[in-house]
Amino acid sequence: MQTAQTTVDPSEVAKFEAMAAEWWDPKGKFKPLHLMNPCRLDYITRQIAGQYGRDLTQPEPFKGLRLLDIGCGGGLLSEPMARLGATVIGADAAPRNIPVAQIHAEQSGLQIDYRNITAEELAAAGEQFDVVLNMEVVEHVADPQAYITACHDLLKPGALMICSTINRNPKSFAVAIVGAEYVMRWLPKGTHEWHKFITPDELYGLITTAGLTPVDRKGFVFNPISWQWSISDRDLSVNYVTASTRPA
Ligand SMILES: C[S@@+](CC[C@H](N)C(=O)[O-])C[C@H]1O[C@@H](n2cnc3c(N)ncnc32)[C@H](O)[C@@H]1O
């Protein structure tokens, strides 16, 4: 299935263009993603290791896997995936993110192929991957179904997509918008639009309509006392993640 329709929402991409210089500042505008990284990397690495039978205690356990980090931003997830041995392509619709990500990878001694390109353009070019990381992007696109369908096309048969986003309910409005943008001021006001948040059932609907098989979903839960994120089987009320596969 090929998709030609653009998934880019220019006003969303402009927000990330304006913040591009801050990607690697752990106290800057992307502080929430930096704080969340250990927890989401734990989830991502276990899912990939499980799907491909890799031993995470071995050096470079993801060697031989071709991984796309779609909406890669500054490369907060691309870099650890490259360290684990994956061949990483980081793609983002915001042009300014690309040199920021490239310079940081160079400084870190990592080889990552960063490109200013969208999911649908990569799919139209016939690119395919063993893993597509699709983290915190679907709530920023113009057409979530076209976007997830493009992600389906980017997976080899039997390959894995991991997709995280934010639930839509009164609690997520209070926590992800009022709390993060107005009270904690972690993110600039207007970074998120509540009506673009997606419930887990809606995301499963998008995934299955695209032809993927959902295999797992978990919550990412922030503890304001320990200031740490953890993975929850039950609490998907704000941040959550799904794993799905393309049928072989
Ligand atoms: C919240 S950031 C997430 C960055 C990264 N995935 C992470 O979790 O660390 C969302 C990113 O998606 C990018 N983006 C938005 N719409 C996109 C689209 N249609 N195609 C590709 N990237 C897009 C933005 O430019 C931004 O860098």
UniProtKB/TrEMBL annotation:
<feature type="binding site">
    <location>
        <position position="92"/>
    </location>
    <ligand>
        <name>S-adenosyl-L-methionine</name>
    </ligand>
</feature>
<dbReference type="InterPro" id="IPR010233">
    <property type="entry name" value="UbiG_MeTrfase"/>
</dbReference>
<comment type="function">
    <text>O-methyltransferase that catalyzes the 2 O-methylation steps in the ubiquinone biosynthetic pathway.</text>
</comment>
<keyword id="KW-0831">Ubiquinone biosynthesis</keyword>
<dbReference type="GO" id="GO:0032259">
    <property type="term" value="P:methylation"/>
</dbReference>
<dbReference type="GO" id="GO:0061542">
    <property type="term" value="F:3-demethylubiquinol 3-O-methyltransferase activity"/>
</dbReference>
<dbReference type="Pfam" id="PF13489">
    <property type="entry name" value="Methyltransf_23"/>
</dbReference>
<comment type="similarity">
    <text>Belongs to the methyltransferase superfamily. UbiG/COQ3 family.</text>
</comment>
<dbReference type="InterPro" id="IPR029063">
    <property type="entry name" value="SAM-dependent_MTases_sf"/>
</dbReference>
<keyword id="KW-0949">S-adenosyl-L-methionine</keyword>
<keyword id="KW-0808">Transferase</keyword>
<keyword id="KW-0489">Methyltransferase</keyword>
<dbReference type="GO" id="GO:0010420">
    <property type="term" value="F:polyprenyldihydroxybenzoate methyltransferase activity"/>
</dbReference>
<feature type="binding site">
    <location>
        <position position="40"/>
    </location>
    <ligand>
        <name>S-adenosyl-L-methionine</name>
    </ligand>
</feature>
<dbReference type="GO" id="GO:0102208">
    <property type="term" value="F:2-polyprenyl-6-hydroxyphenol methylase activity"/>
</dbReference>
<protein>
    <recommendedName>
        <fullName>Ubiquinone biosynthesis O-methyltransferase</fullName>
        <ecNumber>2.1.1.222</ecNumber>
        <ecNumber>2.1.1.64</ecNumber>
    </recommendedName>
</protein>
<feature type="binding site">
    <location>
        <position position="71"/>
    </location>
    <ligand>
        <name>S-adenosyl-L-methionine</name>
    </ligand>
</feature>
<feature type="binding site">
    <location>
        <position position="135"/>
    </location>
    <ligand>
        <name>S-adenosyl-L-methionine</name>
    </ligand>
</feature>
<comment type="pathway">
    <text>Cofactor biosynthesis; ubiquinone biosynthesis.</text>
</comment>
